[in-house]
């Protein structure tokens, strides 16, 4: 997506255009590399800790994490995105935003600490009291880091941010493994989350070189709160709908099934989030400057969809087809029941990725209120899918989640096209071309993973390698017989090469 911007350049005045384009391209390269590292770390963390901590212990942390996640959205209050997209940000405005995030984090820390016994009583799990109180401090730590991290993004210091965001999970994983070896219980996962927040805070403060001054009146921050409020509402609605399943499973089925659901979700959906969110970090500052140039804005969205969604959806197709061997490789013995959950999440993740450029549009054009309205509608779909699916247990809940994502994808195109200039039809066609490749790729992976060498008597690693090889072969055949698909693949290669060359 970055080359389209850098070829035409993107700034208000001629002398700054080429510089902005190069910085965006460098940002795309560095962000892609750092997210690749973070995704590998996330998968490694799930794979290693799943062999040290049993599903029921993971389920205990997942019960608390669902509550903590809501608090984290409140703690940010949409102000990090508001600061990143603002055309101008004074020192006083930045100071005020910092103290607002810190104040919210402190209040949430105290509230979570005090409410810990109530949360434990709600789920009838006494161990949740200690987990809640340990994780409560994450609110305060992240509140202290929010605006420093946003400042690094505004300054397009993507390399520095990448170092921090890779170092934090490395240190946290090391600490979690040490605790996991000693205890084999939920404390390893708690330590991992607290350590990640603490190392991130230290890194962004050292890199940011900014000491906030006291807050002042008349700094002109009302617009930030207006935008952040709309974004906050949509994020709360989306998070609540996404995590309803956690409450349903935790309250009705217990920590064991919830642990299976949680690990399958984290093995797949967390890396996808780590991939998609930083793409917003790179795309948002550039798209915000193109908001008044519809033709170039649309071209960037179309290219962005192909660059982001094509490789992601193809990989997810392999996961759907070979979910049994994927679970065998990455989670190990005792987690076999997570395979159908993983396949359902792969379907949901593919649909969400195809529609993700719509989220860029909402943010770049300041449509946080419209995003909130759309989020309310999609929340109803998710809630309906989870509640209907709950009649069939944990597998039914995952299937309901996937079905709602299938419906949200076309809805997202139609919704945005009603309120702003948006190439919904062309994006839908681009998505269908991606699916035309993903379906045979997934079928090939399933057939390969079903071979005797990959079955119960075989090796999961062998099965996964066979599935990947078969998928690559079938994809190559698709490109050979279908010129439109071949053009999309060539575009992906050209974009990656252009980003690499512009980033030098």
TrEMBL record:
InterPro entries: Poly_Biosynth_Transport. The chain crosses the membrane at residues 96-120, 126-146, 158-182, 188-207, 307-332, 338-359, 371-391, 397-416, 428-449, 461-482. It is found in: Cell membrane. Its main location: membrane. Residues 1-15 have a biased composition (Basic and acidic residues). Keywords: Cell membrane, Membrane, Transmembrane, Transmembrane helix. PANTHER family: LIPOPOLYSACCHARIDE BIOSYNTHESIS PROTEIN WZXC, PST FAMILY PREDICTED COLANIC ACID TRANSPORTER. Belongs to the polysaccharide synthase family. This is Lipopolysaccharide biosynthesis protein.
């Amino acid at each position: 997506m970055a080359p389209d911007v850098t070829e035409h350049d993107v700034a208000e005045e001629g002398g700054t255009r080429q510089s902005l384009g190069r910085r965006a391209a460098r940002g795309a390269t560095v962000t892609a590399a750092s997210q690749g590292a973070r995704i590998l770390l996330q998968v490694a963390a799930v794979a290693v800790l799943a062999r040290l901590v049993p599903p029921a212990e993971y389920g205990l942390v997942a019960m608390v994490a669902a509550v903590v996640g809501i608090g984290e959205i409140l703690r940010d209050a949409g102000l990090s995105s508001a600061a990143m997209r603002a055309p101008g940000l004074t020192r006083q405005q930045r100071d005020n935003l910092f103290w607002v995030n810190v104040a919210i984090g402190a209040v949430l820390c105290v509230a979570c600490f005090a409410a810990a016994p109530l949360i434990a009583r709600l789920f009838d799990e006494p161990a949740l009291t200690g987990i809640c109180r340990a994780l409560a401090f994450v609110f305060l730590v992240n509140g202290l880091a929010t605006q420093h991290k946003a400042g690094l993004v505004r300054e397009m210091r993507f390399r520095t941010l990448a170092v921090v965001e890779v170092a934090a999970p490395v240190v946290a994983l090391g600490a979690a493994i040490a605790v996991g070896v000693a205890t084999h219980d939920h404390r390893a996962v708690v330590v991992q989350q607290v350590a990640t927040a603490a190392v991130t805070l230290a890194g962004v403060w050292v890199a940011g070189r900014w000491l906030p001054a006291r807050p002042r009146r008349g700094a002109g921050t009302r617009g930030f709160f207006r935008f952040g409020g709309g974004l906050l509402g949509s994020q709360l609605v989306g998070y609540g709908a996404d995590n309803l399943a956690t409450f349903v499973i935790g309250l009705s089925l217990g920590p064991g099934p919830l642990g299976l659901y949680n690990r399958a979700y984290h093995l797949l959906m967390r890396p996808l989030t780590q991939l998609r969110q930083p793409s917003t970090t790179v795309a948002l500052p550039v798209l915000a400057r193109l908001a008044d140039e519809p033709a170039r804005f649309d071209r960037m969205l179309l290219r962005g969809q192909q660059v982001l969604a094509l490789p992601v959806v193809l990989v997810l197709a392999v996961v759907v087809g070979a979910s049994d061997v994927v679970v065998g490789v990455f989670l190990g013995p005792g987690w076999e029941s997570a395979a159908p959950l993983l396949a359902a999440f792969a379907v949901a993740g593919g649909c969400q990725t195809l529609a993700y450029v719509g989220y860029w549009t909402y943010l770049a054009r300041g449509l946080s209120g419209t995003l909130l309205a759309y989020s309310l509608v999609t929340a109803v779909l998710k809630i309906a899918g989870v509640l209907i699916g709950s009649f069939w247990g944990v597998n039914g809940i995952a299937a309901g989640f996937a079905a709602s994502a299938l419906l949200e994808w076309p809805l997202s195109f139609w919704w945005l096209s009603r309120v702003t200039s948006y190439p919904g039809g062309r994006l839908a066609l681009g998505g269908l071309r991606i699916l035309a490749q993903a379906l045979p790729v997934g079928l090939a992976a399933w057939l390969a993973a079903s071979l005797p060498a990959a079955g119960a008597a075989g090796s999961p690693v062998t099965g996964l390698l066979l599935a990947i090889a078969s998928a690559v072969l079938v994809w190559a055949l698709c490109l050979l017989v279908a010129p439109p698909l071949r053009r999309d693949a060539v575009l992906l290669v050209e974009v990656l090469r252009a980003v690499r060359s512009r980033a030098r």
